[in-house]
Amino acid sequence: MSRAVAHPLLGKWRIVAADLWDRDYLDLVEPACITFGEGGRGEFAFGAVHGDMELEYAASIIFFTWAGFDEMDDVSGSGSAELDDDGTLEIELSFHLGDDATLKACRS
Q1: E strand or H helix at 23, and its extent?
Q2: Which member of 19, 25, 56, 76 lies 3.0 to 4.6 Å from 67 by CB, making a disulfide possible if both were Cys?
């Protein structure tokens, strides 16, 4: 895995769509977003879900594990984020022993 310096996915992204949830749910508590930092950490929030991530950087993709909450219940999982040709971010998000979702995001 490469270091995060100058990684193209670093920064904050606005989650704009998901295959399991509609836009009203995504923005239920706050504007849905995901942030990738340089120090191997990140976070995301959408609907009633919030997660803190530990990141691993590859050339054009970021892999992560996460832990957080969904409607006040502890949840965790893993995922990845990759830049599409159109400049949007495709996020694969898995809940441990639960759902798998695909989310789309644009630069904030």
Answers
A1: helix 23-26
A2: 76
Q: In this predicted structure, what is the pLDDT of residue 30?
A: 96
Number of domains the chain is built from: 1
Kindly state the tokens that stand for 11. Answer: 């920064």
Give the structural domain span for 15. 11-107
- Tens digits of residue pLDDT in 66-100: 999 999 899 999 999 999 999 999 999 999 998 99
CATH code where residue 81 lies: 2.40.128.20
Number of C-beta neighbours around residue 40 at 10 A: 15
Residue 32 tokens, joined: 């849905």
- For residues 81 and 51, the answer to whether their CB atoms sit within 8 Å is no
- pLDDT by residue (tens digit) across 47-58? 999 999 999 999
How many residues make up the chain in this entry?
Answer: 108
Angle, CA of 99, 54 and 16, to the nearest 5°: 50
pTM exceeding 0.85: yes
Give domain status of residue 47, yes or no: yes
